[in-house]
Design brief:
The chain is α/β, with parallel strands linked by helices. The chain has a single domain, classed as Response regulator (Rossmann fold), CATH 3.40.50. It is built from 6 helices and 4 strands, in the order βαβααβαβαα. A 4-stranded parallel sheet has the order 2-1-3-4. Strand 1, helix 1 and strand 2 form a beta-alpha-beta unit. It starts with a strand and ends with a helix. The structure holds 4-nitrophenyl phosphate (4NP).
Length: 152
Amino acid sequence: MIKVMFVCLGNICRSPMAEFILKDLVKKKGIENEFLIKSSATSYEEIGNDVHYGTVRKLNSVGVPIEHREAVRLTQNDYRTYDYILGMEEANIRNILRIVGDDSENKVYRLLDFSKNSRDIADPWYTGNFDKTYEDILEGCNAFLETVLSKK
Ligand code: 4NP
């Protein structure tokens, strides 16, 4: 079982989008039973809130199934449970490390560090551009999946 925790600031836009995209990719490959995929926040801002409408609308338009959910905060225990803790941007990585302590087991990565073009995921919070966020996350999830499957 490969356990993946996606993390962003609020857990309503980017990390749930990554959760649903990776779930869809592994389902299409018929390997969904080999994965546990969740998402969480570094902040308390949106705890309990459902997925942002921009993420829902974008994923509906490309046929990626979404689940209604309540935003949760990353915990220290998650560090022990999950194999990969994947932040969306550099600021997430700093905040993840504040919550979990140091990354002694090398589990914490920025999602697009798995891509050849290493960078932050576009943040839709101020721009409202969920298309760019979707493209970035899809690229990151495909690159991540390629890496973990090549290690099997
Ligand atoms: P997310 O988006 O981190 O991708 O879920 C945001 C959600 C909330 C805030 C910022 C970004 N906020 O400032 O409350």
